[in-house]
């Protein structure tokens, strides 16, 4: 990868740089699946630049019982769970994991009903699919998204992220046909520290972006 100056300005800059790396897909009507909520503004930009279609792939992190900012795994909307390699049962019990899994699946059920009011979910079967997130810390969320999407038989499945912890790239590499990323700094601490501006994305913004096809 080319040298990218960090921190990035914002998600818009990150999306434009990723779209440049994915420019070869223009004309193939790629399906861009963004992981809500943060990656949806990025997905909108990438889909528009590549003349593709935008939708979401619903996955949620399972937070640690000790530190809610730390993901010990992720779950997709069907309840399929991906635990992080460093998951420690002595620090986060399986009872906690089961509870969080149930809560996150319920949240995704409500989100799918809300997003589905715009239009039916896109079908990845036989298509070039790019899953976009605004960064990889543990890789668990992207891994869950890739597994869930692979089960729906895309022609080609790519992962695209601006910044990633090097270890997270190793985790997702076997699950994707290719990974596009801008930087994988060795001193990776969190996704947000690699952006100058990293605001929360609201549900209203997600719904508005999904309308614009």
TrEMBL record:
GO terms for molecular function: glycosyltransferase activity. Keywords: Glycosyltransferase, Transferase. SUPFAM superfamilies: PRTase-like. Gene3D superfamilies: 3.40.50.2020, PRTase-like (3.30.1310.20). The lineage of its organism: Bacteria, Pseudomonadati, Pseudomonadota, Betaproteobacteria, Burkholderiales. It comes from the Bacteria. This is Phosphoribosyltransferase. Residues 13-168 form the Phosphoribosyltransferase domain. It holds the Pfam family Pribosyltran.
